[in-house]
Amino acid sequence: MLAVHFDEPGGPEKLYLTEVAKPSPVEGEVLLKVSASALNRADLLQRQGQYAPPPGASSILGLEASGHIAELGPACRGHWKIGDPAMVLLPGGGQAQYVTVPAEFLMPIPAGLTLSQAAAIPEAWLTAFQLLHLLGNVQAGDFVLIHAGSSGVGTAAIQLARMAGAIPLVTAGSQHKLQMAEKLGAAAGFNYKEEDFSEAALKFTKGAGVNLILDCIGGSYWEKNVSCLALDGRWILYGLMGGTDVSGPLFSKLLFKRGSLITTLLRSRDKKYKQRLVEAFTKQILPHFSTESPQRLLPVLDRVYPAAAIQEAHAYMESNKNVGKIVLELPQ
Question: InterPro entries in the record, alphabetically (predicted)?
């Protein structure tokens, strides 16, 4: 089969399509013929040599995919049949023509969505769902500050926060990104390049602060995050795009607010955790992607590339210009 590959860490120019061995499903797994896979920041970090796959995971890039079931492994129970369309959360391996996956990680594709749209759901939307509900305990009326509001996770979190009755606020680096976020349901957006988002959030909440922060930035935002966090607020760190170092009285300021700092990664979670997450998301959220849903959710796609243009796709993601997901279509 064809798969995205790189021989050594480096820039987007290191990537190319090559022929590799097609995997075979073991007990409880299915083989998915991949139609599309979406890019994630983890793919960029892995290509740069900064984020190794979890033990036992494929070294091929790709944390989510959509396609059709090509083969059922031994003792594969459940309702899935050969030929069924499905989308899936992966620890790796999605950017190839075939990938094996535990049957429990499969999700049906909602009515009215294309395979490219479906490929943009698993990693981003399961992450946003996990951040808001499993970890953030979001409540109706909560002010939720979402950093990188125009990213895949950000565009998902805006819609899920609204569905929960919360009030999403976002940060982004351009007026275009803020306008897109507001179209999706953000109550307000702050351009971090032009204003202090912490002061703006405090002003919007009339001094109360935000109850929940979804933070993929890390080090460079810590002081502003603590400043605009409400009493008893929850700050969830799931990325370090702004650096790893913290200098200053973080703990005393957080303690004064009685704030909770929670860290999380999804890729390295164990099979049982991911299975529970997929089950809860499939039951509670997936029906709302259907064209018949009155509160319809939509994955936001920025660009779709053929897999042969993998270098261009990575370079575009690194430019930070995308609003929503970047999708790769695999050769059929």
Answer: ADH-like_C, ADH-like_N, ER, GroES-like_sf, NAD(P)-bd_dom_sf, Quinone_OxRdtase_PIG3
**Tokens 């796609």 found at:** 301
- The pLDDT value recorded for residue 119 is 98
pTM above 0.90, yes or no: yes
Other CB atoms within 10 A of residue 223 CB: 15
Whole-number Å distance between alpha carbons of 264 and 280: 18
Do 89 and 63 meet the contact criterion of CB atoms below 8 Å apart? yes
Three-state secondary structure of the chain: CEEEEECCCCCHHHEEEEECCCCCCCCCEEEEEEEEEECCHHHHHHHCCCCCCCCCCCCCCCCEEEEEEEEECCCCCCCCCCCCEEEEECCCCCCECEEEEEHHHEECCCCCCCHHHHHCCHHHHHHHHHHHHHHCCCCCCCEEEECCCCCHHHHHHHHHHHHCCCEEEEEECCHHHHHHHHHHCCCEEEECCCCCHHHHHHHHCCCCCEEEEEECCCHHHHHHHHHHEEEEEEEEECCCCCCCCCCCCHHHHHHHCCCEEEECCCCCCCHHHHHHHHHHHHHHCHHHHCCCCCCCCCCCEEEEEEHHHHHHHHHHHHCCCCCCEEEEECCC
Q: What residue ranges of the chain have pLDDT lower than 50? A: none
> Which domains, from first to last, does the chain contain?
2-120+299-329 (3.90.180.10), 125-263 (3.40.50.720)
Q: Is 232 exposed, middle or buried (0-12, 13-18, 19+ CB in 10 A)?
A: exposed
Report how far residue 160's alpha carbon sits from residue 176's, in angstroms, rounded to the nearest whole number.
21
pLDDT for the residue numbered 246:
80
What number of other Cβ atoms are within 10 A of residue 78's Cβ? 11
Q: What are phi and psi of 211, to 5 degrees?
A: -80, -25
Tokens 């704030």 belong to which residue? 259
Count of residues in the chain: 332
